[in-house]
Amino acid sequence: MKRPAPAFPALLHYEVAHRILMGYMDYYYRFKLITKRARLRFEARDWHGTQADARSRITLYREEVARTTEQLNELMEGIAGDARFWGKVRDAFAEEIAHFNTRNIAETFFNSVYRYTYGIGADRRVMFVLRTGSYREHQGLSSISYDFTIGRRPLTDIVREVLDFFPFEVAWEDRERDVLLVAERWGAHPASRSQRLEILQSVFYRNKVAYIVGRLLDHDRVHPFILPLLHPDGRGILVDALLLESDQVVSIFSYHRSYFLADISVPSDMVDFLATFMPSKQISELYNAIGFEKHGKTVFYRELLRHIRHTESDPTERFVSAPGIAGMVMYVFTMPQLNMVFKVIRDTFAPPKQVTAETVKEKYDLVKRHDRVGRMADSYLFEKLELPLDRFSAECLEELRSTATSRVTVTQDCVMLSHVYVEKKMTPLNLYLQTADEAMAQKALRDYGRAIKQLAAANIFPGDLLLKNFGVTRVNRVVFYDYDEIELVTDCNFRHIPEPRTPEDEMSSQPWYYVGPRDIFPEEFPGFLLRAGPHLTYLRQQHGEIFDANFWNDLKRRLLAGEIMDVFPYRTGCRFLQ
């Protein structure tokens, strides 16, 4: 049945704005509902439920955008929406959200609906492309933290008061023991001379850990104050550590970990708070960390535009090929002073690559939804991303035109990329090892082995373990970033190489045994990872088990049994009770 014409066509723009607003409100309600039950999951030790909630919250946004778009299509059937009309919709929407605690998130939702409706890139005439306020886009009317004056008070009293603000519905294992452990470590640190402690009212949940997050203020110095809480099987809740150093905390909130579940009323206030003790973090990264990755993408885009604008007069700041061995699946480019890289899927892949472009997209989507345990870089997916043509080097533009023709459109003044992933820039591990001294090289190799083991514990087999597919971060952490061949550990068949039957078998260049499509022989890893030498010898000494099928099959058995393994985002030496 044909939809009746609107009674007041002149107010259609207001009704469209209202439908988008209702879609946003429904999204935000469901977002909050997921985060609010994180405490219940933690108390019940429902780790599978926590991971399922983290995955469903990621898909929630796109589902609500699609549903809202479908409603708009019905509402606007037969009515052409031009820029003038949508400008009026945007103005009506802006008026309704002017005093929202989450105005900035709502603006991003509006942008997503518009782009989804028309399948276009950023349009400054009708979208909230540039920010409508400062980066402190809304200041809440009430405090988001509990505040404590330290003075000469015993630290044990303050720790008890902090824990009193978080009354869990299950028992502690030994709360007084934990109070003494926290106070002792705090008292031995220079941060104990701070004047004030501020603890966020929101608890941050991820996997099997709950984090009480705060900051210590000492005149012009700010220290983090993080209490990771565990709830082990057969025991009560306990404090696992006290983290007081910024470098300990940066990794917890990093772009290579899954997003937190935290019940947050004013996201911009929260980001502002976190930035005080993690100044190296971009605002976009912090929005990602607290679960608003779509708005994090919006903020990153603004950061990118600002970088391009501010470096306009610098002739060396052009898009160029990223350092390292060129990938067979992706062409990767960057700007020298930009801390991000852009990855475009090539039209054809050189042998022996047998994946398709659709497979690559599926792998990146898997990583987005999976528990990254700090070892897989997060990425923003942009569709129809426009970049200024005059900022491309000739070499970079030629590579895009010749190897990714179907995904690149060059106009008079811009380069439009129909599908591109944007990730944090890292130093490829193979390049890092070429210039690292022995101590740094060994540290990186130790972390490389840990990265493989932690990925495996999260049910990820990287597929291609080559060093060039792993990067070293600013804080010297090894992270995996090439996803076109990843598989679930539980889908792989790890085998020992059979003994040769004859001398001819042993000398043959071809396997003398059947190899199935998912068969993997860990004994072969050393031959293509590293040349024989001190690096390979050291890796064998530290992590030789990754070259043994028994190691992988044991992990596979535990994963199939439903075990969620512990992977802590802070150093083992920081833990109180190991």
UniProtKB/TrEMBL annotation:
<dbReference type="Pfam" id="PF20423">
    <property type="entry name" value="AceK_regulatory"/>
</dbReference>
<keyword id="KW-0418">Kinase</keyword>
<dbReference type="GO" id="GO:0004674">
    <property type="term" value="F:protein serine/threonine kinase activity"/>
</dbReference>
<dbReference type="InterPro" id="IPR046854">
    <property type="entry name" value="AceK_regulatory"/>
</dbReference>
<keyword id="KW-0904">Protein phosphatase</keyword>
<dbReference type="GO" id="GO:0006006">
    <property type="term" value="P:glucose metabolic process"/>
</dbReference>
<dbReference type="GO" id="GO:0005737">
    <property type="term" value="C:cytoplasm"/>
</dbReference>
<dbReference type="InterPro" id="IPR046855">
    <property type="entry name" value="AceK_kinase"/>
</dbReference>
<dbReference type="GO" id="GO:0006097">
    <property type="term" value="P:glyoxylate cycle"/>
</dbReference>
<dbReference type="GO" id="GO:0005524">
    <property type="term" value="F:ATP binding"/>
</dbReference>
<keyword id="KW-0816">Tricarboxylic acid cycle</keyword>
<dbReference type="Pfam" id="PF06315">
    <property type="entry name" value="AceK_kinase"/>
</dbReference>
<dbReference type="InterPro" id="IPR010452">
    <property type="entry name" value="Isocitrate_DH_AceK"/>
</dbReference>
<keyword id="KW-0808">Transferase</keyword>
<feature type="domain" description="Isocitrate dehydrogenase kinase/phosphatase (AceK) regulatory">
    <location>
        <begin position="17"/>
        <end position="311"/>
    </location>
</feature>
<keyword id="KW-0723">Serine/threonine-protein kinase</keyword>
<keyword id="KW-0378">Hydrolase</keyword>
<keyword id="KW-0963">Cytoplasm</keyword>
<keyword id="KW-0329">Glyoxylate bypass</keyword>
<dbReference type="GO" id="GO:0004721">
    <property type="term" value="F:phosphoprotein phosphatase activity"/>
</dbReference>
<protein>
    <submittedName>
        <fullName>Bifunctional isocitrate dehydrogenase kinase/phosphatase</fullName>
        <ecNumber>2.7.11.5</ecNumber>
        <ecNumber>3.1.3.-</ecNumber>
    </submittedName>
</protein>
<keyword id="KW-0547">Nucleotide-binding</keyword>
<dbReference type="GO" id="GO:0006099">
    <property type="term" value="P:tricarboxylic acid cycle"/>
</dbReference>
<dbReference type="GO" id="GO:0008772">
    <property type="term" value="F:[isocitrate dehydrogenase (NADP+)] kinase activity"/>
</dbReference>
<feature type="domain" description="Isocitrate dehydrogenase kinase/phosphatase (AceK) kinase">
    <location>
        <begin position="317"/>
        <end position="571"/>
    </location>
</feature>
<keyword id="KW-0067">ATP-binding</keyword>
<dbReference type="GO" id="GO:0016208">
    <property type="term" value="F:AMP binding"/>
</dbReference>
